[in-house]
Amino acid sequence: MTHRTVELDLEIYTFDIDFAAHVSNITYIRWLEIARLQLLVDIGIPTHDLLERGVAPVLIRTEIDYRRPLVLGDPVHISLWLTELRAASAILEFAITSGEQLAASAVQRGLFVNTATGRPSRLTPDDRARFEPYVAVSTPDLVR
Length: 144
Known about the structure:
Elements: E1 6-10, H1 25-42, H2 47-52, E2 55-66, E3 76-85, E4 89-98, E5 101-114, H3 125-131
Antiparallel strand pairs: 1-3, 2-5, 3-4, 4-5
């Protein structure tokens, strides 16, 4: 069984480069954020719609494994899918590639929170159905 993924091509800018002349770890965090926001757009619930409902998507964990450095001029592609979808949280996995090579893999746990109470907010059945096509049955070999 296949699952949907968010697929994005990204650019490396001069401000993404650190003192060691490769992409800074902060840039990877920004790229993960861009992909997560695109997921919400792709499923039809952009962040501003969630906030209007009184729900905020928040991160509670980020883990990145850097496999090879990226430098100015390298092509960058990011893929995102889910490996777990719970009542109020999800685990997202990412592969950041350059050409045929894996540059980094990442895992994030996100939580939906009620903005008024700060407590977890369960997904509605409709929202859950929107996320389900992106849930992978097992983690692709590319990432781990």
